[in-house]
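Researcher: Let's run the pair from yesterday's discussion. Sequence first, then tokens, for each.
Model: Starting with the first of the pair.
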Amino acid sequence: MSKMKPSEKTLITGLIISVAFISWSTVGTSVGAGFIALAYLIGLFRGNLIKPHNPMLFWGLIGGVAWMLVGLLWTSNIIVGLAILKVMLPMLIFPLGLLSVRWDFNRWGPVAVKVFIIASFLAAFAGLVWGCWSSFMGGETHPRMWSPFISHIRMGLILAIGWGILLLNRKYTYSLLYGIIAFLSIWNTASVTGIVMLSITAFFCWINLVKSSVKNQTIILSSLIISFGLTAITYSIYPSPFTGELPTHTPWGNKYVHHPEKYLEENGNKVWNLLAIDEMSKEWNLRSKVPFDSLDGNGHQIQTTLIRYLTSLNLPKNGESVKTLSNSGVKNVENGRTTIKNHSGLMLRLEVLKFELGNFLDGGDPGGNSVTQRFEYLQTGIYILKSNGLKGLLFGVGTGDLPASFERAFVETSSRVDKVFRQEAHNQYISWWVRSGFVGLVLWLIVLYASWPKTSSIARLAWCIIVLSCFAEDTLETQAGVTLTMLVLTGLAYFNGNDTTNSQI
């Protein structure tokens, strides 16, 4: 690096730090961004900045940040607006640095990619070790403990990109090892977004690596496999309506209460049939020191937990079932366990998703259910757009008013989501539109259009992962998400060779 200009040295230092820490620490990425910003200032002071090689991308990003700054003029919460701008700083720093400072991408791009892959692999491996050790020691078993450094959602995106880079470079031995660790990490974090992105990576790479003579057949076969898989998953989690006869009285002669119109299931059995609450209450209080009208170890109603647990055993919810319940079963209910199934990772997530869907169809509170509550968030965002008039539609609610706007809209629409779980859109495009109006959304779409790689499969894959993730996540609402997005849109914008031939790592 001795022959490099100070601005390039500083830029490369910042880039390497950023890609090294993107999987580990927001503090590290902040330091990296600081070096990149310093590189721009050095280049500006020395007068050796270059014209951005992608001016539409450059000015689209700069314009987006400038528009959010202008949005402070009509926001009612300056503090929140400034906090948002702080999170969005990489949208300003990375184009100024990576697109305006002269640097040798052919030399340093592959180095940065190698660091990115090694760092993400080690972070995923460390998360697996930590999760296994915590489980072995009897500690917290929440899926997110398997990604202790950054959000499991962002980690899933990083691993999908890293695996795709290795596959497209035909590093099959490394990609096998990386893919196994990535899959285990995403499986244990139970990230639906992560597994979808990993699947997209597999599909994309398969299409790009096959011979051109069989590419069309491969696309058709892959589409059929994906369609079959999605159909099978949907069939497995979608609850069916009840059919059959139900007894009218318990073995003790009391009347059952049935709700055959409801969908909710546990272990394939309907939850809201065969209910004899009075019998259950009396027998439970004889079996347990935890009262029937109190909470279990997870903070949920004992009554509901007991109903779900007995349902998973395919037992009627009556006094006899509670009386004959094993001591371990009583303990399980006290601890908040709702099913006899002992799934973990993604299998557990599919079971939870099935419960979420049944609960949603029954008109229950979708709060705390990460998939079904997204429908409520999306509907709430659309309500805000419709109710704020032409001014709000064009210019948005203001840079700092997105959270408050959603809070008001939840109340105005009498949302089923409990206050504890009320969040923003979980759709970056809706978030952009609500916060910054149609003007802000158009600027963001210009950025996406301008950043589309014309030749490189690697850059196209990374671009697709970022763009698709924005439909189900607020990808740019966290520092890690913004930094990853800017690394992809501005860093990989230099991949302009023929497919992957200029991007060997």
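Model: Moving on to the second of the pair.
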Amino acid sequence: MKNYRYINYFFAILLVATGFSLTSCEDEPDKYEVASGYPTVNYVRVTDIAASDSLLTGAYMSSNICLVGENLRSIYELYFNDQKAVLNTSYITDHTLIVDVPKDIPSVVTDKIYMVTRSKDTIKYDFKVLVPSPTVNSMSCEFSKPGSEVTLYGDFFIDDPNVPITITMAGNVEVTQITSITKTAISFILPNDATSGYINVKSIYGVGRSKFRYYDTRNVLFDWDGSHGGLSIGKGWRDGSKVKKEEDENSLDGAYICFTGDMAGGAGATWNEDAFSFNYWPDASDKLTLRKDFAEMIEEYGVNGLQVKFEVNVPSSNPWKAGGLQIIFNGNAAGDNAYFSDTNVPRGLWIPWRNSGSYDTAGKWVTVSLNLSDFNKTHEGNKCDVGFDKTMLDGLTFFVWNGGVEGTDCTPVIMIDNIRVVPVE
């Protein structure tokens, strides 16, 4: 039997440290007991009985798998590479053991399962823990200028010492200055020749493409100066002229709008249209849906396949602590323009201070995204009885008011630029 078992000092130390023990009780004849001897694994399969003939040589982290073999109750501890699995004795029999692959990335990759017995012997079985390629969900500011530091957010940003992580912008432009890396965020300096498009992140486990496009100027509805093909002003009762700012030291790229003023902290916040709103209430000839890009996106992706994006800057000196940003697509040729408090008009609500009580971006521009599939609220945050559809996309309103959440008195400064609608990718 000596040629069958593999003694591993590392696992012996871990066993001593855990101090785990299982004992039997004579008055509990059905109580689970660790068996003596050594386990044998014949194969590993999925847990779904309908697909039980699907044998596995590897599985992704957190996957639920079944070991099939002999004397599996002799397994006292189980490791995938150097990561310990959680054993549930309710799912262990002599011939099967159901377990979740550990969710943490192994520090030392051996492509082995280690089965440790009560006598501290370790039996190995070949099995790979699969780590996904990088997932790139979002970017701190999609309109950042070359030379500035930005951050990508996602998962599985693994910087292996033998295979360093790399970032490539559109046009095969390589990032040469990575400033920090964690599993879920990676920061770098935008190259001087960075161009609009997707961003690829490559790790030892594969390549992940961003779910967005850097400097995406498709279907920009409002950029306040026409620099990206957007409108420079709204239209209607509050056209934005009272909140529009020309290019200054706070600009992201030219003109922008800036909501600011005293905001009361009650759930209803403060009704102040002049300081906290802009409207675009169109006529039949200038509806937003007449724009070629917008019309094509609506046709191809449908309302639920689109999202509204914009950049926002809230300085730390004037944090936002009350009121919700209400985003209302509205307006039609009949002049039946929706008003802020109309509970029959579904809208999106953005209340970034909701959980912490305060929100600011430290004076930096950041990108905000809201799926149109979530535009189902009233101004108080309740579910709207009227469904959201493409006939509501002709006009647009932004208004900071209400939201249905109790806040605190504040004088926020909320700068907004590059309002656009693009596909959810």
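Researcher: Give me one sentence on the second I can quote.
Model: Residues 9-18 form the longest helix (10 residues).
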